[in-house]
Amino acid sequence: MKLENLTFKGGAHVSHHKEFTESKPIEVMKDPDIVYIPLQQHIGAPCDPIVEIGDRVKVGQIIGRTEAFVSAPIHSSIAGIVKGIVDVTTPTGVRSKTIVIESDGTGEPYQDMISRNSLENLTAEELLEIIKEAGITGMGGAAFPTHVKLSPPPDKKIDKVIINGSECEPFLTSDHRVMLEDPEKVIFGLKIMMKILGVEEGYIGVEKNKMDAVKALRESLKADDNIKVVTVKTKYPQGDEKRLIDAITGRKVPSGGLPMDVGCVVNNSGTAKAMAEAVLEGKPLYERVVTVTGNGITEPKNLLVKIGTLFEEVIEFCGGFKDTPGKILMGGPMMGLSQFSTEVPIIKGSSGILVMTEEEARPRKINPCIRCAKCLEVCPVYLQPLFISANALKNRFEEAGDYGALDCVECGACSYICPANRPLTETIRFAKREILSKRKKS
Known about the structure:
Blueprint lengths: L25 E3 L5 E5 L9 E2 L6 E2 L4 E4 L8 E2 L4 E10 L5 E9 L20 H10 L12 H4 L10 E6 L8 H8 L1 H15 L3 E7 L3 H11 L5 E6 L8 H9 L14 E5 H13 L5 E7 L7 E6 L4 H7 L7 E6 L6 E2 L13 E6 H4 L12 H5 L6 H9 L3 H6 L10 H5 L6 H18 L1
Parallel strand pairs: 1-14, 9-10, 9-12, 10-11, 13-17
Antiparallel strand pairs: 2-8, 3-5, 4-7, 5-6, 7-8, 13-14, 15-16, 15-17
């Protein structure tokens, strides 16, 4: 099998802007005095609080859970006193019940955290339970509960597991630094997934602009010949899991399908590290690496941040704003979510904070479509974005659906490449919401 420079058809060559933080080692941010921990940080059912105002909690203690299968427990990231249970808007725009904890400065860990030193004495079922109780979700942004992804139906035979180390989103380098600084944990996380799924073939796909991470991973593999580190072309959206499956295996996930439909499971490198820490150290997911970057930040950094820390504190830790910010995003410029305030908490899916200058954020003039077909050339799903968008703008959502609106992965490549500055991704996203809403009502 070819292991170098793999890719998929379509995509765009974007400006990467990794230079802000790619050489910055992960720095541990000081614990905040107060954290705001939402009980809805994942796809699926929100958790219910299992603590009360006035309770003392410890680091890693479960403070929210639900019996729903598609969900993930929530843990305290600091030791201290529960000061409130309030509604807070998260960086995703969701209004969530949130537990407010004031630190007592002890950093005392929860006594039930149990570490294991190897995989040999653990069954697949035990590993799955550890991951579930650790509250691990996808850390690339989607935040899908990991134990659910690792529990495919019996009729879905999985034969390949892939770690997504592409990190194709401009500006972000948190995954890069994780692979470079903790390659053994990323590999161990892959082995956990392989054991749970009974799979013999594992792959780690890394874009070619991260060759230092490729070297670190390959050196850490030693004699594990059933795991391959493959390089993929530096191209956006190489990190979309369906595009990565196509590049590495040649398999194409069908319209409306999932990776398991072609025998694959994909997880982010940060997620793999979190799984390794859950098994090796008994550590739940209560902190994560966040890239804080952009021309609007005084000192860009890669930080290990406690979940529940407010954006404003993270930004202040990086020297604050250089000037009045033009836009603040959770994530990168292609798929990130614009923030209305810095008084929102870091959550499990917070891969980065991007601060743009006023000049960068200035709206571009929208011009009529010139039918250049560039959006068709770059679309990784082979859609016709201009027709989906045109129908959406005229409220013809059924017609937009006929053009495959629901297959759009909202990568933003079409909007990026459009010489007329058409809001293609935004209008397609709008069409998708309207189509799904209509289907739900009917």
